[in-house]
Amino acid sequence: MILVTGATGTVGNQVARILASTGEAVHALTRNPERTSFPSGVRVTRGDFTDPSTLEAAARDADAIFLMLPATDADLERAIAQAAPHVDRIVFLSSALVSIDATGESFIARKHASVENAIKATGVDWTILRPGYFASNALRWWLPQLRASDVLRWPYPGARFAPIHERDMAEIAVVGLTGSAHAGNTYDLTGPEAITAAQQLFALARSTGRDLRWEETQGEVAREALAFLPPPLRDGILASWERATYEAPFVTNTVARVLGKPARTFEQWAADHADTFAKSAA
């Protein structure tokens, strides 16, 4: 049995689906089971890491855990220590900021590094995945605006990233969960090429046939767009976007090296999600 946390998220849901398609027994743990559907045979349990016993209870019949940092302010390190004695391996979806934040100033990097260290301290086999910018951020950040308008009001159109497709992250997670060949490895993951945020929007325009346009926001207006996030996380994200306008983009070939095939481009991601972005409020 493989326990998948964050199973309603873009990556966790893909992990659960890939595992189920190969015949693996899957236990999906999520705060909101009603938010998405799962393949038949996937066991679904409601769980919340603000209660560390949640992960331990779900891990008791598991051989491996796919772990993500929850959006809530949870004591994940304690939960890991309680759950680890029940399993053989843990695959953790961390953050590339742990690799690239040399100053140690990033809240996001510090939090993920703390969880990485907690996993390593358990003594079980582990694989750490450190993805950079998610292609699916377009769903989280931009979709609400683009359902109502062809104009995206957002900061830093010139920020350059190498967006990674959730399917690539999930496929690498699966190889780590289902065997020991990748134990003890840390993988920095990105898409195959760096493009600006504005170029991502234009790729969505091509995939949908819509006339999408960027209207740059700044200062407090930019902060308002992320007001739903905890202030340290919001400020860390905005700071990383600002740096991405002038720093060399972070690009690796790890996806191709691990999977033996090219990483999916953002153009592919846009085509895969064209139906979602084609919808409008009207």
Order of helices and strands: EHEEHEHEHHEHEEHEEHEHHHHH
Calculate the mean pLDDT score and round it: 91
CATH topology descriptor of the domain at 2-134 and 165-190 and 251-263: Rossmann fold
Please tell me how large the radius of gyration is: 19 Å
CATH class of the domain at 2-134 and 165-190 and 251-263: Alpha Beta
Structural class: alpha/beta
Count every beta strand, where a strand is a DSSP E run of 2 or more residues.
Answer: 11
The largest sheet, given as strand count, sense and whether it forms a barrel, is: 7 strands, parallel
In the CATH hierarchy, what is the superfamily of the domain at 2-134 and 165-190 and 251-263?
A: NAD(P)-binding Rossmann-like Domain
- The CATH architecture name of the domain at 2-134 and 165-190 and 251-263 reads 3-Layer(aba) Sandwich
Strand order of the biggest β-sheet: 3-2-1-4-5-6-9
Can you characterise this structure?
With 282 residues, the chain is α/β, with parallel strands linked by helices. Helices cover 42% and strands 16% of the residues. The chain has a domain at 2-134 and 165-190 and 251-263: NAD(P)-binding Rossmann-like Domain (Rossmann fold), CATH 3.40.50.720. The protein contains 13 helices and eleven strands. Helix 2 packs parallel to helix 3. It has helices spanning 10-21, 53-59, 76-83, 97-100, 107-120, 137-148, 166-177, 197-208, 219-225, 231-243, 254-259, 266-272, 274-278; strands at 2-5, 26-30, 43-46, 64-68, 89-93, 125-131, 151-154, 160-161, 186-189, 195-196, 213-216. The model has no long low-confidence stretch (mean pLDDT 91).
